Amino acid sequence: MLVSCVAYENGIKLADIPVADISEYVHRPDHFIWVALFEPTRDELDEMAQEFGLHELAVEDARKGHQRPKIEEYGDSLFAVLHPAEMLPVGDQGDCELNVGEVDIFVGHNYVLTVRHRTQTGFAAVRARAEREPELLRHGSGFVLYALIDNVVDRYFPVLDQVETRLETAEEELFASASSRRKIEELYGLKRELMALKHAVAPLMEAVGKLFGGRVPQICQGTQEYFRDVHDHLMRINATIDSTREMLTTAIQVNLALIGISDNEVTKRLAAYGALITVPTLIAGIYGMNFKDMPELSWPIGYPLAVFCMVAIDAILFVRFRRAKWV
Fold first, then answer.
1. Would you list the DSSP string of 240-296?
2. CA distance 35 to 4
3. Which domain holds residue 185?
4. pTM, whole model, 2 decimals?
5. Which own/partner contact pairs does 98-103 have at CB distance under 8 Å and 24+ positions apart?
6. 105, 43: one domain
7. d(CA 6, CA 3)
8. In 109-218, at which residue ranges do the beta strands (DSSP E only) sit?
9. What torsion do the CA atoms of 71, 74, 78, 79 make, to the nearest 10 degrees?
10. Do 213 and 300 lie in a common domain?
11. Cβ-based neighbours of 61, under 8 Å, separated by 6 or more
C-alpha cells in the first residue's frame, strides 16, 4: 500500500501529492519526490516504475524480495537493498525474537522510492528528521539515502545490546545450575540471530564503502562524509558481532564440557555404588553354592562372620569412595 507521497522544493516540503502527479513534479528543477510503499502489490510497483522510469532489473528484484544487502548503479540512479532488524515480542512471557525485514530503495536525481517488506517499523522518524533540517535536505535524494541507511544501521545497536544482555544472563546461569538441553538451545538461538545480523551488516558495509571513497556516484556527491560516518558505525557493529560470536562459541563449548563432567560424575557414582553392591553379592553367592563339603558351613559363627565381612568391607569401600568424592 501507499504510505506517503510528498513533494519537496529546495529542501522544504511542498505538499502530499497523488501518485498521478508524480510525473509532473519529478521533472521540475529543484524538486524531488519521496514516496514510501509497504508490501506493495505488483500493480502498485509497476505504476511507480512507470512514473519514475525505474530500471526493469531493479524493479524485478524489489518485486521478488529476499535480496542480499547491496547498492547497485543503473545509469544515473541507484538501487539499494537494506535489511532492517527489530526485536518483536513473542507470547505472553515477555520474550522477544529477531525479525529481519527488507527495504528496497530506488534513488534518482530528484526522487526517492522506498519499498518495505516484512518489517513493522517504518521511516516516519527519518522523514521528520529530514524535514527539520532543510539545509541538509537541499542535498536532495543523496541525503535522504544517507538518512535511510543511517536509520537502518542505528537499529542494529539496540538489537545487539539485547543479544549481549541475553548472553550475559546465559553465562551467569551456566555455572549456577546444571547444564541442560534448554541452555544449549538458547545459546544456539543467539548464534542464529548473530548470523542473521552478520548477513545484514557485512555486505552493506562493503556497499557503503563505495559511496564515499574512489569513484562516488553523482547522486552522492556532497554527502561523502555522511556515508563515511555510516561506514564507521557498520565497522563497529561488525566487530561487535564477531566478538560476541566468539563468546557464544566459548559458552557453548563450556556448556558441553560441563555436561561431560556431569556425566562423568554420574558414572563414578554408579561405579562406586556398583562396587558396594558387588562385595555382599559375591560373599552371599559363594555361601549360596550347594556343595556338601564346604568347610565353613558347619561353623556356628559362619553366618554372623559373613554378614560382618560384608558390612566391614562395604564400610571400608564407602569411606574410600567418600574421600575420593565418588559418593
1. HHHHHHHHHHHHHHHHHHHHHHHHHHHHHHHHHHHHHHHHHHHHHHHHTS--TT-GG
2. 6
3. 2-258
4. 0.81
5. 98/159, 98/193, 98/196, 98/197, 100/196, 100/197, 100/200, 102/65, 102/66, 102/67, 103/148, 103/152
6. yes
7. 10
8. 111-117
9. -60
10. no
11. 67, 79, 81, 104
Q: Name the residue with cell 532543510.
A: 134
Last residue of a domain, one of 258, 289, 315: 258
Same domain, 191 and 318: no
- The predicted-structure confidence for 256-313, as pLDDT tens digits, reads as follows 887 787 778 888 888 888 888 888 888 888 777 766 677 777 777 777 888 888 889 8
Which pLDDT tens digit goes with each residue over 63-108?
Answer: 988 889 999 999 889 999 999 999 888 766 667 889 999 999 999 9
38 and 147 fall within a common domain: yes
The total domain count for the chain is 2
47 by Cβ neighbours in 10 Å (0-12 / 13-18 / 19+) ranks as middle
Pairing of strands 70-74, 77-82: antiparallel
Residues 310 and 284 in one domain: yes
Same domain for 251 and 295, yes or no, is no
